[in-house]
Amino acid sequence: MTTTATTLKGQPLDRAAFDSMMRRRMFYTPSFEIYGGVSGLYDYGPPGTSLQSNLLDIWRKHFVLEEDMLEVDCSVLTPHEVFKTSGHVDRFADWMCKDPKFGDILRADHFVEDVLEARLKGDKEARGQTVEEKKKDAKREKKKSKDQQEAVKLDDAVVKEYEEILAKIDNYNGEELGELIKKYDLRVPKSGLQPTPPVAFNLMFQTSIGPSSNLPGYLRPETAQGQFLNFAKLLEFNQGAMPFASASIGKSYRNEISPRAGLLRVREFLMAEIEHFVDPEGGKKHSRFYEVEDIELDLLHRDTQLSGKTTVQKMTIGKAVKDGVVDNETLGYFLARISLFMQKIGIDMSKLRFRQHMANEMAHYACDCWDAELLTSSGWVECVGCADRSAYDLTVHSKHTGKPLLVRQRLEEPRIVQEWDVVIKKKKFGPAFKKDAKAIEAVILATTQEQREKLAKEIEETGKAAIDVPELGKVDVGKDLLAVEYKSRTENVRDYTPNVIEPSFGIGRILFALCEHNYWTRASEGGDEARSVLSFPPATAPTKVLIVPLSSNDKFRPYITKLSQKLRSAKISARVDDSSATIGKRYSRNDELGTPMGITIDFQTVEDGTITLRDRDSTKQVRAEEEKIIAAVRDIVNGDKTWQDIEKELPIFEGQELASR
Ligand SMILES: Nc1ncnc2c1ncn2[C@@H]1O[C@H](COP(=O)(O)OP(=O)(O)OP(=O)(O)O)[C@@H](O)[C@H]1O
């Protein structure tokens, strides 16, 4: 699903030039590079680190502070038992295949996607592109193998089939991917052979905890489990009040089969995750939904993808929830809040869409899931997963440990409850399923009322119920082992397992997309090479102000020192560039770092104490007394004013005057 990427100003994005700038300016760099590097591991340099901490700061304010979330910081090292119970040991896997000749390891879905996309591209070329398009494609494809470039015209029906497969590529399991490889004779370009059939590869890094190696463990692949295991303590901390959310920012680790596309698929990455615990009764309403219901989102529904299309529907989140497109208010609330967050940090909103997961794609625990995807030069990339994890995690951990992970709600008036109840006939159930009995029982007990109603119907019609168990797949449970009955009972205290809505942010992917979305090139005045600019909003920009003295003249020093001190005490990050490069060069170096404002100290400063303030995007300048300029900088950084406001308030300064002094 690749789409041509453009810069902020609509120019075609030159990925090579962009990457080279990011490396040159040390936003990020391969880890252990002087030892040859390890794929999928990156270090952030000073601007990358600063950008990341600004993103996290905004994230904390936007989510944690705004919603009184309970932030925790849990262990990365996790004992085997936890991930066995959560289903990760058995299910947290991708499909892997191998080039039979050279032994290169491939991620099966990516392999199918790449070959089909290359064939479609070849078809497009064979059908005739404009000369301009051909040139562009040839340039982009230079690095690819001959096999992938071949311009072969395909039948219209085949093109349609390929497009349909690509639209639902995330929905195939290993067997189905294997069938696609055979059916369409998909070959690895390097060897010209079909790869081996896909096998599951677990993505968790295994280790052992302690010197005796008898406590096997894993590096966590998500922060969520730590939050679930602390649920009872967090509920108590919150004085029993529901709903509430916990949040956590921390590193996660996944042994990705083939890391690619820079920061987009790495093996160690920073996640920011929220677990919002909500009462499953009453339709998972959210008390602040009214605040966001008019926000419009681009939604890509699962049915659209299944029909082979990728057309989004623009819809307010209010309507989406009302029409059942998005399952419930709480899920909808977070989708809208994610969209507001993206806007705040400076994402190009025309490059954001929300894609619903298809049934097979959904994680084993989820009952509805939407990904916030951002368009990058690598196509649409999932940057935030927002899943309704139902009561799955709390239920399985509670079952396994015997510790209640429940909410006890004291009812003011006793109430008669009519509900679907599951009765497991233990005497027969245990012997029938032996070692699997526990796992099957946990899934049955975790079912919602709606699911139980369906099970009752299924048992009535077929004499058995097909239960989907994480480790085992579909298991048939006969009516001699399980009954699902509609019963009445009186309740004084209501115990329930909360459902969990989980927005899960990959900070590295967001950071990368943010850089691409804010990147553009400006023609230089001298006519030489175009200069790169990163137009981050002031709140996100790694450094807010550049201080440049006109020259290395000693007269400027006291002004630099004083100005730096004042900006420091106003908590505004500033850097001095007093190198010997021309002012133009120094400014353009900082345009590449995304520094939104520049202050120049020149001979007029020495005469009358005025300084200039330059706007990165328009390169316009104003001139005023130091205090006024500092106030303007503070207003821009705090988001109280824009550059356009400042231009109206302070006298415009023509830059050429600087050079003539
Ligand atoms: N290998 C990775 N590198 C960087 N970020 C990642 C990686 N895997 C996941 N993430 C981030 O963590 C978020 C939540 O993880 P989740 O488990 O939903 O991802 P996922 O569905 O496994 O991603 P994908 O399908 O792309 O592998 C993702 O939206 C993404 O931003």
Automatic annotation (TrEMBL):
Any matching Pfam family: HGTP_anticodon
Localisation: Cytoplasm
Keyword presence, Cytoplasm: yes
Main location: cytoplasm
Listed GO MF terms: ATP binding; glycine-tRNA ligase activity; transferase activity
Catalytic activity: 2 ATP + H(+) = P(1),P(4)-bis(5'-adenosyl) tetraphosphate + diphosphate
GO biological process, one term: mitochondrial glycyl-tRNA aminoacylation
SUPFAM superfamilies with a match to the protein in the record: Class II aaRS ABD-related, Class II aaRS and biotin synthetases
Swiss-Prot/TrEMBL keywords: Aminoacyl-tRNA synthetase, ATP-binding, Cytoplasm, Ligase, Nucleotide-binding, Protein biosynthesis, Transferase
InterPro entries assigned to the protein according to its UniProt record, in alphabetical order: aa-tRNA-synth_II, aa-tRNA-synth_II/BPL/LPL, Anticodon-bd, Anticodon-bd_dom_sf, Gly-tRNA_synthase/POLG2, GlyRS-like_core, tRNA-synt_gly
Record EC number: 6.1.1.14
Ranges for domain Aminoacyl-transfer RNA synthetases class-II family profile: 204-549
Presence of the UniProt keyword Cytoplasm in the record: yes
GO cellular component: mitochondrion
Subunit (UniProt): Homodimer.
Family, per entry: Belongs to the class-II aminoacyl-tRNA synthetase family.
This protein's name: glycine--tRNA ligase
Organism field: Anthostomella pinea
